[in-house]
């Protein structure tokens, strides 16, 4: 989830629990820090794009990592607010850190919540990585709580409830649509090896539909309010896992990308100086009108391109880093 939503959750947490910490100094900054701290991994990003894929939303956004950070923050906060019991600070820090992890988990990017014991990426597929409805509503709760000081705690707690209820309601909407469409395809005799609904911009109104028949992935869009409306589609040949593994023995980035990608597709072309292979993950593609206007003439995020010679030896490769970077470039 975007940084604004994470920071807003810290402010809301402070508003909800301020009465429970009447003697706490710098309480608001402490809550904001707790809500942000799982993103501390971005401070260690370097020029190696593989590092980002492997470790962003890794240990710092895991259940175990969050608990360790909560202990450290509670101990440090003890030097600032000596009258606040250590256990009380720890529980608050743990809650706000886990709210951050929840906000990441509800998107389709994937979060290694079991790290360091497992590097499997988990995602609830409930909201898009940037959800204006969600974020603006949380900001409105926050502003109202600032204005209505006498109701600050109650409003803050309602806001925290919204943090959990809205994504679950969105997920339920998507599940109903997915079941409905699955039955329609089954009645038409259409079978898929994979069939998923994942968030797109302005979920829960719009959802990406990703399906696979044999070795072809197809992505299209569905509108919750007009489920029968047809949208453009994107299709691509499924990338061979064995090919990515082979390239990964030459450069580990390809093995890492194979682990990261969810719906990998490949396009190839002869450059006259070798074969260029373009790998995309349909998870980060879209036919949504807003998203297509943003990404016009821009490379899709998380695109990996490699060039091999006639013997299949890797000559060069390049990687388009992230969705967030691409969105920032589009705004500029």
UniProtKB/TrEMBL annotation:
UniProt keyword annotation of Membrane present: yes
InterPro entries named among the record's database cross-references: Transcription_regulator (IPR053170), YdjM-like (IPR007404)
Top-level division of the source organism's lineage: Bacteria
Gene Ontology molecular function terms on file: hydrolase activity
Transmembrane segments: 26-47, 59-77, 89-106, 126-147, 159-177
Family annotation (Pfam families): YdjM
UniProt entry tagged with the keyword Membrane: yes
UniProt keyword annotations, A-Z: Hydrolase, Membrane, Transmembrane, Transmembrane helix
Name recorded for this polypeptide: Metal-dependent hydrolase
């Amino acid at each position: 989830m975007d940084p604004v939503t994470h920071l807003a959750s810290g402010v809301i947490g402070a508003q909800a629990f301020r009465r429970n910490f009447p003697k706490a100094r710098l309480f608001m900054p402490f809550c904001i820090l707790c809500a942000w701290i799982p993103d501390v991994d971005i401070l260690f990003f370097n020029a190696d794009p593989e590092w980002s894929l492997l470790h962003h939303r890794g240990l710092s956004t895991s259940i175990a990592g969050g608990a360790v950070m909560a202990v450290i923050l509670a101990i440090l906060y003890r030097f600032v607010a000596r009258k606040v019991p250590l256990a009380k600070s720890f529980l608050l820090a743990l809650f706000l850190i886990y709210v951050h992890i929840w906000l990441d988990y509800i998107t389709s990017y994937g979060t290694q919540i079991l790290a360091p014991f497992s590097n499997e990426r988990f995602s609830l597929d409930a909201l898009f990585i940037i959800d204006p409805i969600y974020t603006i509503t949380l900001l409105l709760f926050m502003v109202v709580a600032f204005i209505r000081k006498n109701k600050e705690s109650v409003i803050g707690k309602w806001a925290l409830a919204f943090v959990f209820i809205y994504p679950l309601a969105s997920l339920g909407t998507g599940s109903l649509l997915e079941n409905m469409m699955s039955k329609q395809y089954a009645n038409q005799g259409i079978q898929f090896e994979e069939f998923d609904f994942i968030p797109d911009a302005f979920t829960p109104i719009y959802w990406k539909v990703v399906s696979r028949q044999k070795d072809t992935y197809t992505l299209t869009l569905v509108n919750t309010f007009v489920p029968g409306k047809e949208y453009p589609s994107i299709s691509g040949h499924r990338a061979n896992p064995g090919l990515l593994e082979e390239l990964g023995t030459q450069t580990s980035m390809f093995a890492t990308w194979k682990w990261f990608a969810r719906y990998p597709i490949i396009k190839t072309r002869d450059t006259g100086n070798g074969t260029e292979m373009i790998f995309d993950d349909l998870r980060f593609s879209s036919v949504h009108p807003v998203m297509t206007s943003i990404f016009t003439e821009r490379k899709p995020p998380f695109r990996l391109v490699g060039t091999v010679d006639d013997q299949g030896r890797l000559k060069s490769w390049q990687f388009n880093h992230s969705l967030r970077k691409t969105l920032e470039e589009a705004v500029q």
